[in-house]
Amino acid sequence: MSGTSTISDWRAVLADAHTALLTAVAGVGTQDQSLRTPCEQWSVAQVIQHATGDQMAFTSAITGGPGPSENPFTPSGQLDGEPRSLLDPVLVASAEAWATVEDDANAVATPLPQGPMPAWLAGGACALDAAVHAWDIAVATGQPSALTPELARPLLIVARNIVEPLRTYGAYAPALDTDPGADDVTVLLHYLGRPATWTR
């Protein structure tokens, strides 16, 4: 892990990220599921499957319960039901799992290659995944993005601690150049390899 900054309000950041993901998914209609997204090669339906599977994987790491039934990195694109009805119980289970984690825990299990992390970073990693995929879904379907500067700012701290090793696994694209004075959302997205001006 790089950097020494932490985020003290990681639970609020995680709750906001979950809300952003749920809001974006709730706005997806049947006609939107095949639309392309900032995640190259993946449709909206595939991003929903991936994001849902990732949240299940974080929950499973904490509780020891079952994880996603399919590989989140090879989503089929075939949703078994309405998008929100698939995500709702997953986020409820996630909230219940994170509620069992102590704020000062030093080694919280994660599904990431880095393994256990301090609570703030593990929760932040879960939040980063949810928030960024919320942005992917929102921009792909023409919805307002809930990835605000206030949410992006702490997530950038998390990203700078965990993302570099994950690029080697293909989880994130190479970082993009960012102009001086760019807003926090743009800085975060470009660091994660996503063009902030992406459009359908």
Structure description:
It is a single chain. This protein has six helices and no strands. The protein has helices spanning 10-26, 44-63, 83-99, 119-141, 149-167, 184-191. Helix 5 (149-167) packs parallel to helix 6. The protein is globular, with a radius of gyration of 16 Å. One of its GO terms (molecular function) is metal ion binding.
Report a brief summary of the structure.
The protein is mostly helical and 200 residues long. The protein has 6 helices and no strands.
Largest sheet: none
Instruction: Name the beta content range.
Output: under 5%
The gross shape turns out to be globular
Gyration radius (Cα, Å) is 16 Å
Secondary-structure element series: HHHHHH
The CATH topology assignment of one domain is: Four Helix Bundle (Hemerythrin (Met), subunit A)
Q: Report helical residue fraction.
A: 40-55%
CATH arch. level architecture of one domain: Up-down Bundle
Question: What is the residue-averaged pLDDT?
Answer: 94
GO molecular function: metal ion binding
Pfam family, one: MDMPI_N
Task: Describe the structure using short key phrases.
52% helix; Four Helix Bundle (Hemerythrin (Met), subunit A); 200 residues; mainly alpha
Task: Describe how the helices and strands are arranged.
Blueprint: H1 10-26, H2 44-63, H3 83-99, H4 119-141, H5 149-167, H6 184-191
